Amino acid sequence: MIAVPKGFDFTVAAAGFKYAQRNDLTVLRSDTPCVWAAMLTRNLFQAAPVLVVKEMLAADRPVRAVVVNAGQANACTGEQGLEDCRNTLSMTARTLHLAPEELLPASTGVIGDRIKMDLWEQALAKLDAGLGEASALDAARAIMTTDKYPKMAWRSLELSGKEIRILGMAKGAGMICPNMATMLGFIICDAGVDQNWWRQAVAVAVEHSFNRITVDGDTSTNDCVFALANSRAGMVEEKKELTLLAKALAEVCAELAGLIVQDAEGGTKIIHVRVSGAKSVRQAELAARAVGHSPLVKTAMYGQDPNWGRIVAALGRSGADFDPNQVSVALAGQTIFHLGAPVAMDWDNLLAAALCRQEVHMDISLGGGQGKYTLLASDFTEEYIRINAKYRT
């Protein structure tokens, strides 16, 4: 049973922005004002909804709803795109009987396309007719683009005798390399929490989940994670209980991030790149991202090829500071490269079964410190090229 937080409901409508005969306009709404957090893309080309949310962060008012459209990114659309975004909020706010500043906008789709305002306006009648009638699963489906399936995760925990619920949903399968990637994430919670605490907890959860995945090394113009908490289940204030709430929030984000990598466009594998022995966490991150982003490493994993040469070559150009003679690499728990030299063995046959599995573990020791970093990556396949070569057609 999906643990929907108290006081939240969902509405979907088929606007026809890009996809025929499917819902592509979504509202997540609370019946009371929410404290909220937003983690936004660091891409310098930021979509109109991202820029509007940045303005809302500066104003720092409570919000009541998230409005999401799939099929048109409203990115690189200039002042007209900003005006379109604000107009959609005004129109939708009237339908929801809210103020425009109570709505957080998010868009996903083709970069450069303006929102089709006539379709948006026509869809409002459908939204109005179905207010609060959709399920959480309906909402998760309606935010999808090239996703193969909806992505949801939830937790329920008891704090001071109160049941607290957290529910998250996300979309994303390609153009994934979050650095707050195309990914959107929405988290709702019915706990009453301090806004500053909530924003810090969300930032930590995102940093250790959505910001540690890669499909293709591309960070989008629209990436965002919104998290709303409406206090309908009661206040959570004790330090021990806040720690438990933060842990549940982090688990929801980590589960969603894993589902994104699992759904990678054309992907067949989840690669766990774990780097240790670095001089700092930042050095470990450089090494992990070089390996996780490498098309040669990713295609080798798709081909079930234990080609350690591609892994160490990626490490060598990563920018991380290490002694090559101290580097060791293990695949599926088997050390294939040790202290700067290959381990002589028939790895093609010994690792054949392990590399057929959906999840592949790659452990890299740089041998020079306490820094650690883990990145989830996908493999690269012919299907990824097909999907993205024909994305606009």
Description:
The record marks 181-182 as: Cleavage. Heterotetramer of two alpha and two beta chains. Keywords: Acyltransferase, Amino-acid biosynthesis, Arginine biosynthesis, Autocatalytic cleavage, Cytoplasm, Multifunctional enzyme, Transferase. Pfam families: ArgJ. The record marks 108-109 as: Involved in the stabilization of negative charge on the oxyanion by the formation of the oxyanion hole. This protein is α+β, with helices and mostly antiparallel strands. It has two domains: 8-262, L-amino peptidase D-ALA esterase/amidase, CATH 3.60.70.12; 270-389, Ubiquitin-like (UB roll), CATH 3.10.20.340. 34% of the residues lie in helices and 27% in strands. It is built from twelve helices and 15 strands. The protein has helices at residues 48-59, 78-96, 117-129, 136-142, 195-207, 239-262, 281-293, 295-302, 308-316, 347-350, 352-355, 382-389; strands at 8-13, 25-40, 63-72, 103-110, 151-159, 162-171, 184-189, 213-214, 224-229, 270-278, 328-331, 334-338, 341-342, 359-365, 371-378. Strands 1, 2, 3, 4, 5, 6, 7 and 9 form an eight-stranded mixed β-sheet that branches. Strands 8-15-10-14-11-12-13 form a seven-stranded mixed β-sheet, with helices on both faces. The longest helix has 24 residues, at 239-262. The chain is globular, with a radius of gyration of 22 Å. It starts with 7 loop residues before the first strand and ends with a helix.
